[in-house]
Amino acid sequence: MNRRNFIQSGAILGGGLLISFTIPQANKLSALAKPVAAGGFTPNAFLNIGTDNTVTVTLSHVEMGQGIWTTLPMLLAEELDVDLDQIIVRHGGVDKAYNHTIYGIQITGGSSSTWSEFDRYRNAGATARTLLTQAAAQRSGVAVTNCKTEKGFVLAGDKKFSYGELAGDAAKLPAPQQVTLRPPSDWKYIGKGSKRVDAQVKTNGEAKFGMDMQFSGLLTAMVAHAPVFGGKVKSFDATKAKAVPGVQQVVEIPGGVAVIADHFWAAQQGRKALQVTWDNGPGTALNTTSQTIAYKRLAATKGVSAQAKGDADAALAKSAKHISAEYVFAYLAHAPMEPLNCTAKIDGDHCEIWAGTQLPGVDQANVAKLLNMKPENIKINIPFLGGGFGRRATPASDFVIEAVHIAKASGKPVKMVWTREDDMKSGYYRPFFVHNVQVGLDEKGMPMAWNHNIVGQSIMGEAKMFGPPPPVDDTSVEGVKGSPYLNTVPDHYVGLHTTKEVVPILWFRSVGNTHTAYAMETIVDEMAYAAGQDPVDYRQTLLKSSPRHLAALNLVAAKANWKTKLAPGRFKGVAVHEAFGSYVAIIAEVSIVDNAVRVHKVDCAIDCGLAVNPDGVKAQMESGIIFGLTMALYGELTLKDGQVQQNNFYDYRIARMNESPEINVYIVDSKEKMGGAGECAVPPTAPAIVNAIFAATGKRIYNLPIMNTKLIKQA
Amino acid sequence: MISLTVNGQPREVAADPNMPLLWVIRDLLGLTGTKFGCGVAQCGACTVHLNGEAVRSCVTKVSRAAGQQVTTIEGLSTNNNHPLQLAWQEADVPQCGYCQSGQLMSAAVLLRENPNPTDQDIDDAMSGNICRCGTYPRIRAAIHQAAKMHQGGAKS
Ligand code: FES
Ligand code: FES
Questions:
Q1: ipTM
Q2: A100 and A114 in contact (C-beta within 8 Å)?
């Protein structure tokens, strides 16, 4: 396989080989690899091979649990021909070379890291291997064609050179214009997988997260935020806060008051003692109950067209049977395990940041703007992320900017930390949504008309990151728009009402699919029952022109023995959905105990095209299913007079070990286009569970979370 | 000054007796393997051993640890070789990894008390530890695996 090469080569100070990526849009010269000190910060490097045989891979993407710390180095190791455990992995800083190959900014998100980097990392490895082989050929006098590599060595005739020995010579050679990638039949890692490279440091306490930043002189800051979104500080009295031992300073910043102290506990005590009077502003008008009523009213009217065909209203009027449903989806907090935090240190016209962030380039630009500094003077260091789920990709850099404000106002280096309560109450949520769906069935029970109106805030519109707000934000309708079911319906209409609220919102693991898949997969289930058909059979009929949905559905139905009768008291539900280019079908097995659901088993099949790291894909399916289970059972933030009513894990519950079902994951053997793995298991989980609940109780659940509905087993 | 033994080392800290052990460990002693997740005994990320018992260090006053033995994740084994640590790596349990110190410290007490735990025992002992990444199935499998390996002789 020949690929055009966008790779540069060069030398590391001290004689090693440096492989970096060119930046296609930019001046070629700016992308030339500059010599750097061994072990030092290397702009736009992807791969360093030291004369001491160290192989260092610098990642363009960040590790937040999804396993990219392992998968991207695997791609490189595959072509470089080294053992994965020989490789040192680190996060890159900010550099255009690390920009997403599709999105054009430096971002980890959209379940896209593996497929979007599949070629680039392999090319980097192949470039290094080619150069090292050439260097060995030169040194030994053996023709290149008679040289081969083997786990960190080049074998040239009867001579054997380590990569380290050759790195200096290789660095002097020009990078090849084209490289030949290994054919799939030769792959050792790709498709076979590898153990996680970061498992060691994540089992002995060594892994460093943003929260773990410590250096001499670093203080801890905690912020009293306005209790209502959009609220402002009217006045504050810091006398009592300053009297707390360990509290150093109290400063006002936009949106709050920061208490700066020697350590977390002093900062927390200080914040408790702080007296702030707030100007809550108009945000106090927001209540979940009134919001629900208003959104439902709006959802009953025709929204801006997102997708339309024929005349849905006329067809509905003619249909033999009518199914009508109104769904309500609450605001949700991402609640990553590591509460948000950021360390900032300002030094003259430079600023250094340590933050677990999915959007480092945007953070750099935002900090530069705030401090009126050059972007290149803002250094962003990225430790491991203690979960992200979208929350650590804020276009406004909210938590980074907050830390910088404190560092600026206090003149001290600070680690700004949020408590769990801050994390839950301070916003950036999955938006609140309402769907109104009207489906008309023909005599055979197949859909002939479909009217679907959605109401909610626009993530893209409020992110202001990808240009002006679109009239129809795809992230509000994805999963309904383009649904394979809708495509079979001759007359249909998908409408969107975009609302505005003071509540800050953001992408949340699987984004719009968190609610659209629920609406689609539960109403299709209703349709199947209305048609008197088995839910899997009914979907198979509707999906007959959607081979990848069908492949996942058929596989899971076979593996879960869908047609086999279950033990008494056990019930099954099914759902299938595409998100981020991957197709996931889920069958959940439940029982009803004490008026609540217990999920015993979840079978899952995925078609993601080539699974580069199959066990990594399985881990992401497990993760997404449990994330979806939490969302289904407990996910709900409510607002009263503009204030979030939930506080911590006791009233914003997360599924625990005793609720964790047996999970079996099956990967479709697929040659189709690669998709993502990090998010796609979330969407079908909740609908599969509630479809099983329907089988058990005869009750449809239109308002998540399930815990709000008392479940009664059918006699 | 409060004296306590952390991972076998005698330590002295100038701390208010009410200061939670978590912040003494992290911010005064600089051992950052023990994590903060909720601060209210809901998530288990801060689990350490106090005289061999699993405690939530975020709600344990340092005064309770005075003169006592504290073990953190850094002291669970000498070389990352506790059967649970080995089983965790073998099963690729960690995702983001943030909860895992607490998971391991809870599991270590379970395994010491009950060398061959059933699924129900695991549910009972581990349901105080939240993993937002949903690594529960692998934690369960790894505990069973470690129970099998436990005869290997590593300390707990
Ligand atoms: S931080 Fe102690 S239990 Fe959550
Ligand atoms: S591994 Fe991320 S919270 Fe458990």
A1: 0.96
A2: no
